Amino acid sequence: MIPEHMSEYAIGVDLGGTNLRAAAIDHAGTLLEKISAPTNYREGREAVLGDIVSAIDQLRAKYGTEGLSGIGVGVPGFIRVNEGVITNSNNLPYLENVPVRDELTRRLGARVILENDANAAALGEKWMGAGRDVEDLVLLTLGTGVGGGIISSGRVLRGHVGMAGEFGHTTVVPTGNPCGCGNQGCLEKHASATAVTAMARLMQLGENLTAQQVCELAREQSEAGEKARTIWRVFGEALGLTLATLINVFNFPLYLLSGGVLPAWEFFAPHMERVAQQRSFTYRATLAETRIAPAALGNAAGLFGAAYLPWLEAAR
Amino acid sequence: MIPEHMSEYAIGVDLGGTNLRAAAIDHAGTLLEKISAPTNYREGREAVLGDIVSAIDQLRAKYGTEGLSGIGVGVPGFIRVNEGVITNSNNLPYLENVPVRDELTRRLGARVILENDANAAALGEKWMGAGRDVEDLVLLTLGTGVGGGIISSGRVLRGHVGMAGEFGHTTVVPTGNPCGCGNQGCLEKHASATAVTAMARLMQLGENLTAQQVCELAREQSEAGEKARTIWRVFGEALGLTLATLINVFNFPLYLLSGGVLPAWEFFAPHMERVAQQRSFTYRATLAETRIAPAALGNAAGLFGAAYLPWLEAAR
Questions:
Q1: Residues of chain A contacting B, Cβ within 8 Å
Q2: How many CA atoms lie within 13 A of A283 on its CB side?
Q3: Furthest-apart CA pair in chain A: how many Å?
Q4: A168 in helix, strand or coil?
Q5: What is the average pLDDT across B187-197?
Q6: CA triplet B241, B243, B247: central angle to 5 degrees?
Q7: How near does any CA of chain A get to the CA of B204, in Å?
Q8: Which of B136, B158, B188, B281 has the highest number of chain A CBs within 10 A, making it the mutation to test binding with A?
């Protein structure tokens, strides 16, 4: 059992695309403090490991070692959690196949748990976010790419070697455009921020519009607005197909979406809902018991999930 | 803890499409006895319940009540396992939304566990079949339709209301032919025994060829043989797409296929493999750790899984 007193807290770290964030969070889920630092991935392994250690040290110096339950670190990449090794990371190739967990544990003199960042975000949403009332959920992170996390019976479903939840490369258009992963017509080519920018370019709306800009455009009553709304329709329909598949596969009560595209919810969600209902009789049969909803914690989800890992492991 | 002595056994029942089978199986997985009786579903609720009870009674009379650990019953339909209620069954509509488990428990004076038949088959394969060495697997049952079962951490992943594993109605051809489920281009329209018969009809090979007959035809060096091989190619490609999705989603070590189409393995499996590899980088990255393989127990899988349920529940 976990003794619950005020001083007990955990540290969660989220190694994101542009910065490293770390937070001290107590067992009740109160965020005590959050720190953030830019990370220059190009500086290599030593710099990144040093940044992680120093962020944790900063929080530990303030909140003490006595009440520190553990440390969780969310990393963009595939993790073999039992071994504490990153097997593949596009952003951090120099951390691949080295004993990152053990190295951090050694430098900090405290046990560290590594976790995939989308898995950590899913766990964070389950603990303190939109999934608080359920034991099973799927999270899709719609960002540069499309990632995902699966929480089953309150725990992360990681798969055999930590590669579960790779929803971005499931097929939604079997004869669609080729994807860097070797497949074609991947969800990621239709329902990511990157895909929105690419579609806006194809529709001659602009060279490098952000998803946010295409969202604002969609509010306009103009030809450009019409084109922007078409982009969000395609986005929603692709997402609806994958969600229909996931609902048929899992029959979970909750499917969460997160990422910078959420402000466009009003434009893509109706299409997503329509296609998900049309393509999944499981969804139609369980409408009152199945929700597709925005995630609640924004980019803090990964911090909460990472911090929760030590407690989850202790309760095993 | 379960005392393991010779006399300990469980009874598994599998309520199939054309007959009811029941077996006494000991804790080591030895099939002590199997009985089978034709079931006329048209006779209604009383007849079916009576058949189940009498099959169980027959085995119990022979092997005794002393060593009987429990009784599991696999049923074609969606089951709310905690309530012991069948919410939907095409074959047994008169058993829907009545307290089947409690009624059987009352009549037998012994606790009964209900389970979906494909889930029971997946569990059987995990216990004594092709999945003995893993804790996580997916089973696809390729029969009249396409069903499925998911074993995660050694347990059945049932979903919120017992509808998980509905792989047959995942989309493989987004603009494909309509399906009775409301979707179009479902896996079931391409990779079931029924689909093989329908494709053989479309290819003018015959009106009502069985999958077995289309398999034999595929061995011929003739125009008909060519057409039959095309059917198995389409079958394999559809299956490959869904398997790629499942591998991306679960990253499990094992994906099993069962059903009367298995004799055509040599004709569909190469296409299935090719498409699964092409569409799933997870599969390509884990070829040494991921297997797509035939199930091992044939139509006995459901009996083994049903019998295993009481022990699994006791170990909870």
A1: 88, 136, 150, 152, 157-167, 169-174, 181-183, 241, 244-246, 248-253, 278-282, 284-286, 289-290
A2: 27
A3: 62
A4: helix
A5: 97
A6: 120
A7: 27
A8: B281
pLDDT at B73: 97
Which residues lie below 8 Å from residue A240, measured CB to CB, with a gap of 6+? A271, A272, A273, A274, A275, A276, A278, A279
pLDDT at B90: 86
User: CA B22 to CA B13: how far, in whole Å?
Assistant: 4
Contact (CB<8Å) B160/A251: yes
Residue B7: what pLDDT? Answer: 63
Say if CB A107 and CB A49 are below 8 A apart: yes
Nearest by CB: A253 against B88, B160, B280: B160
C-alpha closest to that of A115 among A146, A147, A137: A147
The pLDDT of residue B234 is: 98
Cβ-defined contact of A249 to B290 (cutoff 8 Å): no
pLDDT score at A90: 86
pLDDT band at B1 (very low <50, low <70, confident <90, very high): very low
Using an 8 Å Cβ cutoff, are B161 and B276 in contact?
A: no
Domains A9-124+300-314 and A133-295 share a fold: yes
Tell whether the model's pLDDT for residue B248 goes beyond 90: yes
User: How big is chain B, counted in residues?
Assistant: 316
Question: At B95, phi and psi to the nearest 5?
Answer: -100, 0
Question: What is the C-alpha R_g of chain A?
Answer: 20
Nearest to B249 among A136, A167, A290 (CB): A167
- The residue type found at A135 is E
- CB spacing of A250 vs B159 below 8 angstroms: yes
Of B166, B170, B182, the CB nearest to A278: B182
pLDDT the model gives residue B218: 98
Model confidence band, residue B19 (pLDDT cutoffs 50, 70, 90) = confident
Two tokens, residue B132? 């003995």
Report the amino acid identity of residue B12: G
- SS3 for A32-75 is EEEEEEECCHHHCHHHHHHHHHHHHHHHHHHHCCCCEEEEEEEE
Probe site for chain B from A251, A274, A277 (most B CB atoms < 10 A): A251
Report, as ranges of residue numbers, the positions in chain A whose pLDDT lies below 70.
Answer: 1-7, 17
What superfamily in CATH does domain A133-295 come from?
ATPase, nucleotide binding domain (3.30.420.40)
**Spatial contact of A25 and A70, defined as CB atoms under 8 Å apart:** no
Considering only alpha carbons, which residue of chain A is nearest residue B244?
A: A170
Instruction: Give the homologous superfamily in CATH for domain A9-124+300-314.
Output: ATPase, nucleotide binding domain (3.30.420.40)
Look over chain B and give the mean of its residue pLDDT values, rounded to a whole number: 95
Give B213-231 pLDDT, tens digit per residue.
999 999 999 999 999 999 9
A170, A252, A282 member nearest B166 (Cβ): A282
| pLDDT tens digits, B35-57 | 998 877 788 899 999 999 999 99
The residue extents of the domains of chain A are: 9-124+300-314, 133-295
> Which CA distances in Å does B296 have to A278, A301, B129, B179, B301?
36, 43, 5, 30, 8
The domain over range B131-296 is classified in CATH as 3.30.420.40: yes
